[in-house]
Specification:
82% helix, 57 residues, MFS_sugar_transport-like, MFS_trans_sf, membrane
Length: 57
Amino acid sequence: MIMVAGCILEQLVTHLTHWLGARFLYGFLIGLVQCCTNVYISEMAPTPCRGALTSLV
């Protein structure tokens, strides 16, 4: 939900400093998702397809 708000905020701001803040927030959230996706897949995916799913991310 916060990622959607960050993306919309980045598109709608009119001042450069606001855009930089929104871009920082959105970039931080993208990094957080990339970090957490591997851990989530390794914990929740079924054993036979765990390696294939992890290599796709």
